[in-house]
Every structure is written in C-alpha cells, then in structure tokens.
Amino acid sequence: MTGTTTVGGGASGSLTISSATGTKIFTGLVTINAGGTWTNTAANSPVTFRGGITNSGTFNAGSGIHTFDTNAQALTGTLSIPSVTVTDITLTNNNTLTVTTALIGTGGLTNVGTLNIGYAGPPLSQLLTSLQLVILLITTVQELRR
Hints:
It is a single chain. The chain is mostly beta strands. The chain has one domain (about 5-140). The chain has one helix spanning about 125-130; strands at about 5, 15, 25, 30, 35-40, 45-50, 55, 60, 65-70, 75-80, 85, 90-95, 95-100, 100-105, 110, 115-120, 130-135, 145. The strands form three sheets. Strands 1, 4, 7, 10, 12, 13, 15, 16, 17 and 18 form a ten-stranded parallel sheet that branches. The chain is globular.
C-alpha cells in the first residue's frame, strides 16, 4: 500500500490480511482508529512497515514477522506483535509494545513507553548485540523474562 492507511473512520472498519502469498508493504503511516480492527491472524503473513503504526482500535498481528525499515518510525498506542525486526532505522515505542517471539534486527529501538518482552528466544545478551536497544525515559517495564 502506498501512502497512509487508515482503518476505521467512524464506529467501525476493518483491514484483514487473508492471504499468506504476496508481499505486504505499507509505505505510509498505518492508523487504526477507535472501533477499527487490523487482522492478520488468518494469513499470519509477514508485513513490512515504512511509516509506523498508530493504534486506537484493535491490532491482531498474527504470527508473521513484522519488519520496520527504510524510514525512522513510531509505534503509538497498545500493540502486541510477536515477531519484530528493525532494519537499519530507529523505531520508537511511544506507549505499550509487547513482543512474545522475537525482537531482532540491525536498527535501534527507543522506548519512551512500556516494553514487554516475553519469549523463549536467544539470551538477552545476544539480543542486545543484534539490536541496539536504547531505553529512554522508561516509565515501567512490566515484564522482562527470557
């Protein structure tokens, strides 16, 4: 999708990724408004973002890898994304981000909100060498476990 993507413009609206085939790249800001729903649970497709995500609705990421690349980006709202890859950019978490499977990449993560990491991946020391994790003004870390 080229340009911004807005899901839900009033009381409802949805965007469903229903096929695992094909490339899913969103070049602009993806906004899920209150009452809107993003769903990737049927296809569990990998998705690439190049403009960030603002979520005020429901974000069902599925199990596909969510890659953030090309432009510095921000995550705003509450998001649970099992697998996050940050490639050569800085991704800023402004509110609440939960990662349950993998957090990897060659970029940086700036956290000014709450970052929940709970997965059986590589030890945290390996994770930090793969991803330059910068935590600024962290308010609370609810859960940090290996």
